[in-house]
Amino acid sequence: MAEFGIDGGQLVVRLSTMEKVEAVHGDVSVPLSAVRSVMVSDPAIDAVHGWRVGTGIPGLVAVGTFRWDGKVTLAVCNGRAPGVVVDLDGERLDRLVVVTEDPAADVDRIRRAAHLGA
């Protein structure tokens, strides 16, 4: 399962080996200063739209890079579980949508690290 990490001033999304294969993408690192908002989405997959490079089954699996309305999203969603949605500014990715073990705790940790209010 994908997980978020904080490494210095970077927000890192670490993918499992299988997720890297499914996503046709490696781990992602963005500056915490680029984080504009972060929230829990339940289910996370509902925050993913567009055409993809990666793996997808509509409404069930979204793993890869998705493009919609001029925006680029990296999604790691297997199933209809809750996950974390991170909106970014000034990066090649506009959004991260990731199902994690504890989305609420991840949202809190990212908000604190990015100095965002609740």
Helix content range: 10-25%
Query: Which structural class matches the secondary elements?
Result: alpha+beta
Beta percentage is: over 45%
How many individual β-strands?
9
Separation of termini?
26 Å
Order of helices and strands: EEHEEEEEEEH
Rg over C-alpha atoms, rounded to the nearest angstrom: 13 Å
Describe the protein in words.
With 118 residues, this protein is α+β, with helices and mostly antiparallel strands. The protein has helices spanning 17-23, 103-113, and strands at residues 3-7, 10-14, 28-31, 35-41, 51-57, 61-68, 71-78, 83-88, 95-98. The strands form 2 sheets. A 6-stranded mixed β-sheet has the order 4-8-9-7-6-5. Strands 1-2-3 form a 3-stranded antiparallel β-sheet, covered by helices on one side. Strand 5 (51-57) and strand 6 form a beta hairpin. The chain is globular, with a radius of gyration of 13 Å.
Layout of helices and strands:
Elements: E1 3-7, E2 10-14, H1 17-23, E3 28-31, E4 35-41, E5 51-57, E6 61-68, E7 71-78, E8 83-88, E9 95-98, H2 103-113
Parallel strand pairs: 7-9
Antiparallel strand pairs: 1-2, 2-3, 4-8, 5-6, 6-7, 8-9
